[in-house]
Amino acid sequence: MSVVVQNKNGWVLDHCSLIDRGLSQCVRWRGGQNKEIKCCFRRQCFDALKRPYGANNALNVLSDIEAKDNSLLKHSRKRKRKHVDLNQGEIDALAYHEKVRSFILEGTKCLLEAARPLGYLEDLSRDAGEGEPVPSPDCNLAALCDMAKQLPLADAQDDDDDDDDDEMDVPVQFLPAEGVCSTSHLDLFSKITENKADSAVVVTLMGADYIIPPRTSFLLSDFTRIQPLVHYGKKFDLIVLDPPWENKSVKRSGRYSSLPSTQLKQLPVPLLAAPGCLVVTWVTNKPSLLRFVRDQLYPHWGVQVVAEWFWVKVTTAGEYVFPLDSPHKKPYEVLLLGRYTPPSPSPLPSPHHPRCQEKIEELPVDECRLIVSVPSVFHSQKPSLSEVLRPYVGPRALCLELFARGLQPGWTSWGNEVIKFQHAAYYHLTSANDPADASFGGKM
Fold first, then answer.
1. Which domain holds residue 175?
2. Fewer beta carbons within 10 Å, N or C terminal of the chain?
């Protein structure tokens, strides 16, 4: 069960089950045959008890977290005043933390107390795959996107075979039909790629195996090559962004290329959003970035903030991955939710939209909620928000993720690492008829 607990404070999510849920039906095309396989994300990737960034921190057990956190907060304040003068950014960060601390502390405790009797945390610890190495395939997707900038974008062409459609063809390609095993002709960098089937499929792309969820479309490109997404002809009811924010940690590690916040204004969100679209942005705890999204980015797009949520990261033992009052890193991240309003009355969405004949209703959004989960050991692999956001956009909403690093069933995704976590090395792949047959491993 991917939603373990839901109450007035928010949700406890099983991130790994969220991934597996969309892959319950999976096939592989090989040698002209369609073979059913079983596909599961590797559990050891969610063994947060051994997470490197928590190894040197005293973790706060929720059973007596209040006493420990209050003591740590006082000690942190005293040490800061005695040894270091806080700069303005640190003062703002401390003020923001004190503002939200009580809500996060009490809400997390309530949610985890409800989750413990269900065996969620114990099950994660037991099934984490201890002893198995954590996969680290060398995909080099961002580098491939950079090289692909030298290639021309696919042009839209007239469809002479369809007399009922006077519109231009959008740059879309479909994964091979059943029984066709070659994908070497696919242009992943300048065309939208779709899996229209109701089952996931394992295909070979760029010499490696990837698992593509059902009813999924994606574009593998960088910020400068997003035009095919605009030409896709769809208006989305939900847009989720996970921008590569600039920060010192990312710059030192070189894990991925960051993007200056001011460049985000160039994203064509108004061209992609349907009227009333719910826009959700993952933001770090840096107050200047929160202010930028709230006061500059959203107004620039015509989006009004309606809610502020938090993702709280806990270990498989039900402890914060960092002390709640750590002066360096916090165990939570912020999500800013807003509604898009077009600058002038807009017509109904295009015929591609599933609700083109209906009046789109803006469902009210709860102002403060927590999403609690055990995080992946991989940097920036966020939990899917599809289930927690469905009540606010409706079951037939068209959904888009920008700066994605993985795919979700029924969603459209874009980013320069958009299929990173679809690499077969992250999954256990076995024959559905013979679980002992593990001959479907990913190509490294």
1. 3-431
2. N
- How far apart are the C-alpha atoms of 121 and 61, rounded to whole Å? 13
Alpha-carbon distance of 331 to 220, in angstroms, equals: 31
In a domain, 440, yes or no: no
Helix or strand or coil: residue 347?
coil
Residues 112-139 have a mean pLDDT of 75
CB 222 within 8 A of CB 189: no
Residue 362 is encoded by which pair of tokens? 């803006």
Q: How far is CA 433 from CA 24, 32, 35, 437, 441, in A?
A: 14, 19, 10, 9, 16
| Residue 63 maps to a domain | yes
pLDDT tens digit sequence for 288-324: 999 999 999 999 999 999 999 999 999 988 999 999 9
Overall number of domains in the chain? 1
Cβ atoms 132, 44 nearer than 8 A: yes
pLDDT band at 180 (very low <50, low <70, confident <90, very high): low
Give the integer Cα–Cα distance in Å for 138 and 142.
Answer: 11
Higher pLDDT among residues 129 and 412, named by residue: 412
Residue 268: per-residue pLDDT: 96
Q: Which of 254, 246, 265, 269 is nearest to 402 (CA)?
A: 269
**Residue 137 reports pLDDT greater than 90:** no
Range of weakest confidence among 22-26, 106-110, 132-136, 400-404: 132-136
pTM: 0.85
Please give the Cα distance from 198 to 175 (Å, whole number).
Answer: 13
Q: Which helix (DSSP H) or strand (DSSP E) does residue 153 occupy? A: none
Nearest to residue 151, comparing CAs of 220, 218, 212? 220
Output the pLDDT for position 218.
97
Contact 393, 337 (CB under 8 A): no
Predicted confidence at residue 165, as pLDDT, reads 44
> From CA 298, how far away is CA 18, in angstroms rounded?
29
In a domain, 441, yes or no: no
CATH number at residue 37: 3.40.50.150
Q: Residue 389 above 90 pLDDT?
A: yes
> What angle, 0 to 180 degrees and rounded to 10, lies between the N-to-C axes of helices 88-115 and 65-83?
170
Does residue 442 belong to any structural domain of this protein? no
Average pLDDT over residues 173-177: 80
